[in-house]
Amino acid sequence: xxxxxxxxxxxxxxxxxxxxxxxxxxxxxxxxxxxxxxxxxxxxxxxxxxxxxxxxxxxxxxxxxxxxxxxxxxxxxxxxxxxxxxxxxxxxxxxxxxxxxxxxxxxxxxxxxxxxxxxxxxxxxxxxxxxxxxxxxxxxxxxxxxxxxxxxxxxxxxxxxxxxxxxxxxxxxxxxxxxxxxxxxxxxxxxxxxxxxxxxxxxxxxxxxxxxxxxxxxxxxxxxxxxxxxxxxxxxxxxxxxxxxxxxxxxxxxxxxxxxxxxxxxxxxxxxxxxxxxxxxxxxxxxxxxxxxxxxxxxxxxxxxxxxxxxxxx
Length: 314
Ligand code: NDP
Ligand code: OXD
Known about the structure:
With 314 residues, the protein is an alpha/beta fold. It has two domains: 2-92 and 282-299, Rossmann fold; 95-274, NAD(P)-binding Rossmann-like Domain (Rossmann fold). Helices cover 32% and strands 17% of the residues. It has ten helices and twelve strands. The structure holds NADPH dihydro-nicotinamide-adenine-dinucleotide phosphate (NDP) and oxalic acid.
């Protein structure tokens, strides 16, 4: 029997139990409550499938063979100073999750491109007025982070005719996308972006990257979409850019604190559209299939797939 510790405060445990049972009856899913009550010994845990676990959890598990992130991001694990870094860590890579993110990005890029925020405001005023509308080919969308998710969104936006740019850490050539990389490439990338999309992982280099200095380098009246992590953004700087008109509008899916506190200025800001971290939710079916596959690989002495580079931080 293999013992898998499952922890997530936002996922229903039953879905995961059923899904594991359907595929591999020899995996015993246990929770933190089982551990804390002594019903399961810490030494018995072989693997951990985690979303935002409490700090210090993995350090309590001496028999751990791998850590599986329940999401595509791993910042919720790396933020633990006592994380077990001596065992492999994997993240979710799933074509359906990628497709959901692309839907989200395309939906909100189109809303900004077609000036839906302006039409919403005009409707509230009871005004019938047509606004100037550039072609998609005249609109440059810039994506920060052109990995699994940003790369797919770039392809979909390109297929709709948008002029697409991408910014990455290392140099890449991507057909149909104007590519920039590193600190040296950021100014030229930002200077043309009328719609900026953030799909970066949260690392020491990218935390707070969306700040007053960066926003000032966008063309005046640009729009911003954040579907990555709240901590990429300095909230006060974003609100100030919206208030001065430097930014026309923002769509935000992720926040420093989730759920977003009721007194946060984003909630009722007329230029902000917000969603509750739903851009691309992990599907238990895909995640369980990946975890089961990786447990099999590790038990056979093979390397797991979708391995995270802990030194790089994503
Ligand atoms: P990947 O690891 O596949 O891609 C990351 C991209 O970011 C790469 O292109 C990488 O560059 C680039 N990057 C990393 N660090 C830097 C840096 N310092 N400067 C410039 N570029 C950098 O990640 P995914 O596409 O799978 O996911 C991205 C993020 O999306 C996740 O980390 C997660 O936080 C978020 N997410 C949000 C969801 C939601 O529902 N809101 C759902 C799923 C994920 P390079 O190519 O050179 O390595
Ligand atoms: C993820 C997320 O990282 O849901 O998968 O944010």
